[in-house]
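Bump. Still looking for Cytochrome P450 structure tokens.
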Amino acid sequence: MSDGILTFPSTLNTTAIVLALVASLCCLVPLFFRKTVVDKDGNPTPPGPLLRYPFLRKFPELVLDGWAKQFGPLFSLWMGNQLYIVISDQHIARDIFVNNGAIFSSRKNYFIKNQSILRGRAITASQYNDKWRHHRRIAAQFLTPKAVTKYANEIDYEAHILMQTFYTSTAKGAGPVSPQHDTVRYALNVMLIMALGIRTDDSTHPFVDRTLELTLEFNDLTGPLSNVEDFITPLQWIPTTMQKRGRKLHDAFVEVYGGFLLEVKAKLNKGEDVPDCLAKTLILTQEQEGLDWEDMCMLIAVFVLGGVHSTAGIIQWFLALLPAHPEIQRRAHEELDSVIGQDTWPTAEDESRLPYTRAIIKEVLRVHAPFWMATPHYSTEDYVYKGYFIPKNTGVILNCFTLHHDENRYPNAHAFNPDRYIDDHLSCADSAKLSNVMERDHWTFGAGRRICPGMAVAERELWLAISRILWSFTVHEMPNEPISLEEYEGQSGRTPKPFRVRMIPRHDRVHSLLQSRDEITF
Ligand code: HEM
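Sorry for the wait, here they are.
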């Protein structure tokens, strides 16, 4: 009897435990394992890794590259509850992003990045809707190639100041330079001139640190595929430090950029002269354009968020690469000396006459794209591509790392070899329009309708900075200070780890050109 009494509940317990386990498994498995979604015609989502991921480990581009090799040029990936497709082939990239731009041009409404910080604004965070079109059109007035030529003198001047800063901070080449801060101030000044009609007149100007602090906080709060909260919805219901920081950053953007807007407004009200800039346009057209204050603050903010670390990062990667390639440096010097000579340095107009120098810039953009995953797009309709189902609301990742290391397109792809671009005479924007996608230079600025609208200004800044560095200096590694080209800083935008180089003036004219230009304040 006692046995029976004991046995019965124990059987019940076992059954209950097994049932509970099965039930838990049924609930848990979908949380951890991928789901293949099939449409009404039996088309499945593209293949991909078995597990779902809350985030990707360090060097996410290498993880995606490994999966592209395993699952092919179109694979799918579950980040928590969000499905992504990852595109690692030029033709598929064109078919999806360009030919089907009407379907694949939105953005996911990320919890921290889009909802908490940018609140659906700043162009990059807007879904594919009228607000996005409207804000992109306003920004484009300052970013098209034609618009950029209006700022030609200012960009030229900032490039001069950058060279001068390298020259003076190294005591005319005698000491080392750590190029991070100076390159960031260069790119920041160009963006400030275009967005607000102001510049910082000293490396120690408090605004340099303040804007950098905000940008770094933005980069820190937003990963390459955004945050774990975006993929595990219940985490959004728990108040976290990330959420608090996101809201604080939003307020800081409004305070800092709104503060500048108010200053511009006050000047305009007093009838004072304000240089043509985005802020002036926004204030003068606010009513007619139907913009609210946050729209305006975020439009200013995106010039600094999108246009500073990206451009400065490419100049830093260039300086990090150069000492390891004396032969490339020598060839560039030869080209500059024979085409430009040593009496004067290269200007924007000389670009087409210096194909090797141009090729170096394209190669840096390929090898060290700041955003290996561009900025993921988001689909707004169900779509079937070559038998694979891509449901509405799928994230779409342009796998730039794998695309940029495709041996069919870039033989010996891991080598830094500017010669591969020697016959490429197109700007990045024009190259992106080529019908033969295998001739396109690279994917560093993204693709399709969301392609970076800042390409023309970025290219102008890169040209003036890099061609003048090459004209002015030879760049050397510091003894016992190897420069890492594998490690990098930043989640949503990569820059090299801090490093120092020597920049030695190449000839006498460098000294006379770089001794005496005054910093302008306006
Ligand atoms: C070397 C410099 C730069 C690089 C590598 C770069 C790269 C990118 C990439 C990869 C995207 C995402 C494209 C996509 O979704 O397909 C993007 C978007 C964007 N970039 Fe740039 N960018 C650079 C400079 C600039 C500059 C100077 C600005 C000036 C304001 C700028 C403003 C923007 C904006 C507003 C977007 C959002 C576009 C949209 O969502 O419609 N970028 N950029």
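Residues 123-124, 136, 139, 143, 302-303, 306-307, 310-311, 314, 370-371, 374-375, 377, 444-447, 450-454, 457-458 surround protoporphyrin IX containing FE (CB under 6 Å).

Edit: fixed formatting.
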